[in-house]
Design brief:
By secondary structure, the chain is of the alpha/beta class. The chain folds into 2 domains: about 210 residues, Aspartate Aminotransferase, domain 2 (3-Layer(aba) Sandwich), CATH 3.40.640; about 140 residues, Aspartate Aminotransferase, domain 1, CATH 3.90.1150.10. It contains 13 helices and 12 strands. Helix 1 packs parallel to helix 7, helix 2 packs across helix 3 and helix 8 runs parallel beside helix 12. It starts with 11 loop residues before the first helix and ends with a helix.
Amino acid sequence: MFERRWLTNNGPLVQEFEARVRTLVGTRHCVAFCNATVGLEVLGRAARLTGEVIVPAFTFVASAHAFEWLGLTPVFCDVLEATHTIDPDQVEALISPRTSAIVATHVWGQPCAIEPLQAIAKKHNLRLFFDAAHAFACSSGGKNVGGFGDAEVFSFHATKFVNCFEGGAVVTNDDELARDLRLMRNFGFAGTDNVVSRGTNAKMPEVCAAMGLTCLDSLNDIIECNRRNYRAYHALLGALPGVSVFQYDVREQNNYQYVIARVGPDAPLTRDELARVLEAENVLVRRYFFPGVHRIAPYSGRDTVPHLPVTERLCAEVMALPNGTAVSEADVQRVGEIVRTAFAHAPAVRQKLANG
């Protein structure tokens, strides 16, 4: 990179990164972006969406923000209890004359109910996009995530198991859409001094592509580390009262990046109490996707807040545990021991938390 003195503007490392991602997921096109949120925004613009976009409320805020930023209206949908992904029946009930797209999230790398969503989109002549930020190197029905719907968007943020420091990509088999995405990420330039459309500066720089290529070189090792930690967590926590660990479909490819514990009403401590205990022991956990996108400030002020019972339960009970190559088997054992000890002394723990 430094020898070439080519630091950005669709350099050779970005092109190599796009080619490798394209090959891995099995699509005709991969268009790299500076991050996945901007990728979603440019995708919405390139697809010429209007009016309303149906999105799950149980997702990261970017899934809604990207379209709100474009002047569209996110319409929030509930999710399925078993998979935590958008409920196709609820999607169809929310379709109105103003709906232009369905944007579904593959949560924890667990693919959505793809075939029902495709049938709904076709029936109502809607665009279907997937926020696949969690789902790189995952599969559905033996087919790699990336080739479903009209396009899918990956995140290569620093928290993802394949990361570019910051980065994202849109993958698609739609030639026209890919062409427009490439134009729009580079100010609308179709060549030197030839601006043919509106655009923005959404390019991935070479240094980010270099980091991504390094991660791709270690892809299998990273997945194996994640799998090892996931299995250890499952063995340690799965038998505890009121706790379940999200289970991946072993028939499919999974990246095992997210270890999700659900702390139900029968557990000795609530999810929030357990999170405070772990954080006091310097264990970083996240209450995904608390409190639900429909309840965050930009959206909760609307005339009506939708009633989404499954989303509400998940937001109150779900917790992501540390995983990745920086987490050792000994670290997992320590987390398990903290949880077991806290549960065994739950009344005293609750009193201590109440006293601050």
